[in-house]
Amino acid sequence: MYENIYESIRNAAQKRNLRESTINLYCNDVRYFLQCTGKEIADLTIEDVDAFLTKKRLEGRSPETYNHYHSAIRFFYKKILKLNWDDEDIPRMKLNRSLPTVLSREEMSAIIDVTKNLKHKAMIATMYSSGLRVSEVIHLHYDDISRANMTIHVRNTKSRRDRYTILSQKNLDLLTEYWFNAAGPGRSCFRVHGPAATLIIQA
Known about the structure:
The structure is a single chain. The protein is built from nine helices and three strands, in the order αααααααβββαα. It is mainly alpha-helical. Strand 2 (about 150-155) and strand 3 (about 165) form a beta hairpin. Helix 1 packs antiparallel against helix 2 and helix 1 (about 5-15) crosses helix 4.
């Protein structure tokens, strides 16, 4: 029923170089919004958005989920429907921010020591030592490691900007052991499939 709308969202998002994951999220959230309203596109109003988001908030949806809906519908209304949108009238939810729990060196060493799989051991050490996200670690390439400067060249970041991070000696030793004994120099990365990326940080 709304397929032309989703295609318009995809085209508008691609023109703005949005990530494919973001585009899919926008399409899915707008699809859900349209199903909930049950209205024709021409009959949609700002009040429909307010009612939808208010309902999600009262249902106890997290600020992150609420803001996902907000961003997708805002994009839809402004870029596709060309309707006026006032963030003062339809604000985003404030996020509940708290400091993360950081494991001590001793706690992290104990986790690494009891991890049997060499790949997982090296990945856990890299995430802890260098502060990389799982998505960044699994795209790490052999040539991204600078042994002379003790740094890692991080590509494919969430912000799409390359950066460098410090590499510890213990981390380098584990990476070297993995690539030379398990993967071999020149192999692309720690690529994992399915739920493995989650499992390695629960090891």
